[in-house]
From TrEMBL:
Identification of the protein by name: YbaK/aminoacyl-tRNA synthetase-associated domain-containing protein
Gene3D superfamilies the UniProt entry points to: YbaK/aminoacyl-tRNA synthetase-associated domain (3.90.960.10)
Source taxon at top rank: Bacteria
Domain YbaK/aminoacyl-tRNA synthetase-associated intervals: 27-139
GO molecular function annotations of the record: aminoacyl-tRNA deacylase activity
């Protein structure tokens, strides 16, 4: 899967015009913020975990970190990130372009409440040279997120 899958997914849900193709790399929060001319906090980073052997994505503001205690209280399991080299196989996007759009069937998506601080956020668009401009509510709707969670800290 790739940018094309994310683009097709977003277009089919009426958000194709929100995709921003960037000349500069946007594979990290710092690169994405620089390329978009915005604060790192507004980058909606997608973190990939295995929960009971199944892949999940948690989307959080760019400067947030997962709080292991909150994660365990929410998911009743220890946080276990998907190894870097296995992210594409589980999620359908390479690291640097992981987003909650055009992902493999069965991947559950959760949005961290840290995103609610902003009127707009910028998740990746399926590769390391794209982003999508959305409100947190639009991100929730188009991503098919299971729920809002509170699993991060600054």
């Amino acid at each position: 899967m790739s940018f094309d899958n994310a683009h097709d997914y977003l277009a089919s849900h009426g958000y194709g015009d929100r995709i921003i193709v960037l000349e500069a790399a946007s594979g990290t929060v710092a690169e994405a913020a620089q390329a978009l001319g915005t604060q790192p906090e507004r980058i909606a980073k997608s973190l990939s975990f295995l929960l009971d052997g199944q892949p999940i994505i948690i989307v959080a503001k760019g400067t947030a970190r997962v709080d292991n205690r909150k994660y365990k209280a929410t998911f009743h399991s220890k946080a276990s990130m998907i190894p870097f080299g296995e992210v594409d196989a589980y999620i359908g996007h390479e690291p640097g372009g992981v987003c909650p759009f055009g992902i493999k069937d069965g991947v559950r998506v959760y949005l961290d409440r840290s995103l609610c601080e902003f009127d707009t956020v910028y998740p990746a668009g399926g590769d390391d040279h794209s982003a999508v401009k959305l409100t947190p509510d639009e991100l929730y709707n188009v991503s098919g997120a299971d729920e809002w969670v509170d699993v991060c800290k600054e």
